[in-house]
């Protein structure tokens, strides 16, 4: 949490009051009395990735290994907000890497996903950030992330397509340059 957390919550509460009032709603209505503060705290939680550090969240959970084969954590749930409309997008991430003498604690891969997802994002950049973080933390020969997500900005507004999903992929190192590594990865990923 930032040092000035209470000040940020107050500023964001004021902003939510203005936003809610602009709809014509009555801010003194019982159901809305504490909504600006609740919304400000929720927004702070949903964007906490800005205040997290990759080294801290991985907490030295890097271990030596003789394994040089594919390591993958599939179906890591994530929730993020698009930077264009500030509406949620959510889905699953499949995170993989080819170790080069070191592995990372499995739960840390989920923490990496959460850290980058809890920022205003587009899915394409989120995918790349996670892959690069895994490469950076493990020194892997290759890292790959595939993300499947539903975007509320496409479902609630605009084209209003309820069943559309987006798949994005980032391939680094051996996954990008080695056909066999890429094929092994793609066979391990669940179909959308």
Automatic annotation (TrEMBL):
Domain GTP cyclohydrolase I residue range list: 14-188
Matches recorded under InterPro entries: GTP-CH-I_C/QueF, GTP-CH-I_N, GTP_CycHdrlase_I, GTP_CycHdrlase_I_CS, GTP_CycHdrlase_I_dom
Catalytic activity: GTP + H2O = 7,8-dihydroneopterin 3'-triphosphate + formate + H(+)
Entry's Gene Ontology cellular component terms: cytoplasm
GO molecular function: GTP binding; GTP cyclohydrolase I activity; zinc ion binding
The entry's keywords: GTP-binding, Hydrolase, Metal-binding, Nucleotide-binding, One-carbon metabolism, Zinc
UniProt-annotated binding residues for Zn(2+): 82, 85, 153
Pathway involvement of the protein, from the record: Cofactor biosynthesis; 7,8-dihydroneopterin triphosphate biosynthesis; 7,8-dihydroneopterin triphosphate from GTP: step 1/1
Source superkingdom: Bacteria
Enzyme type, top EC level: hydrolase
Pfam families assigned to the protein according to its UniProt record, in alphabetical order: GTP_cyclohydroI
Self-association and partners: Homopolymer.
HAMAP family: FolE (MF_00223)
Protein name, entry field: GTP cyclohydrolase 1
